[in-house]
Amino acid sequence: MNDALIRTFNIWKVYQVGKVMYPALRDISLEVEKGEFLCVVGPSGCGKTTLLNILGALDRPTKGDIFFENISLNKLSDDKLAEFRNKRIGFVFQTFNLIAHLTAMENVELPMMVLGVPPRERKKRAIEILSRFLPESSFFKRPTELSSGEQQRVAIARALANNPDVILADEPTGNLDSANKHQVVNIFREFREEEGKTIVMVTHDLEMTKYADRIVKLRDGQISEIIGR
Ligand SMILES: Nc1ncnc2c1ncn2[C@@H]1O[C@H](COP(=O)(O)OP(=O)(O)OP(=O)(O)O)[C@@H](O)[C@H]1O
Ligand SMILES: [Mg+2]
C-alpha cells in the first residue's frame, strides 16, 4: 500500500453522446506500484486509453478518487494539473505525436521550455538524453526525416526530458517493426531498472506483455483480471 505511486478508488468515466450516457470505465480501483512495469490489455473499446489518460492526469474521472502519491488529483485546478503532468509524467503515444516543424532536439527541449529551464541547460539535457537513443547526425532532423523507430525514440526522449516518475505509453509499439518494438520496450526496462521508475503500457501485442510485472485485463470498462505477483 505504501509503495503505491498511483491509486484509483472506484473510478468511473461516463461519456455523454447525444442523450445517451456511455460508461467507458466502470468502478476501477487499481494501484500502480512504484517501480513496476504494468501492462494494460483488452479488446478495442474496453477503456484502455481512457484509463491511461486518467492515470496520467490528461483527463479527469466522472466519479471516484485518484491519488498520485499523496496528492489528490481531483483537488488540483486545471493549471496545477497541467503543471503536475508536465513535471511528473511522461507520455508516449502510438503515433509519436511529435511536432512536425520542430527538430528532434527542439521536440525534446519543449517540455523543459514549458517549465522555464534556461536554453543552455535544456540543450545540454536534450543532447544527453537523445545521445542514448539516436545518432548525433539525426538530432537536427525533423520528424518526417526520421524513421518510425527513430521518431518513437525521440518521443521517448521527450517523455524523459523533465525526469518524470512514470512513463505512460499508449500502444507505443503499435506502428513499429519487431526490432524497433523490442528496442522501445528495452528502453522502458532500463528506465525502470536503472532509475527505479514506473511504466504503464497499453498494448495489443501479447509478445510485449512478457516484459511486464503485472498485466491488468480490461473488459467493458472493468478490470476482469490482474495477472502476476
Ligand atoms: N470523447 C469520447 N466521447 C464519447 N465516447 C468516447 C470518447 N472517448 C472514448 N469513448 C468511448 O469509450 C470507450 C473506450 O474508449 P478507449 O479509447 O478508452 O478504448 P481503448 O480500449 O483504448 O480502444 P483501442 O484499443 O481501440 O484504442 C469506447 O467505446 C469509445 O467509443
Ligand atoms: Mg486506445
How would you describe this protein?
This protein is of the alpha/beta class. It has a single domain, classed as Rossmann fold (3-Layer(aba) Sandwich), CATH 3.40.50. Helix content is 33%, strand content 30%. The protein contains 6 helices and 10 strands. Strands 6-7-8-3-9-10 form a 6-stranded mixed β-sheet, sandwiched between helices. Helix 3 (104-114) packs across helix 4 and helix 3 (104-114) runs parallel beside helix 5 (148-160). It is globular and about 50 Å long. The mean pLDDT is 95. Bound molecules: adenosine-5'-triphosphate and magnesium ion. The site of adenosine-5'-triphosphate has 12 residues, from strand 1, strand 2 and helix 1.
- Total of helices: 6
Radius of gyration over C-alpha positions, nearest whole angstrom? 18 Å
Strand arrangement, largest sheet? 6-7-8-3-9-10
Count of DSSP strands: 10
Question: How confident overall, as mean pLDDT?
Answer: 95
What is the overall silhouette?
globular
Number of domains: 1
- Classify the helix fraction into a percent range: 25-40%
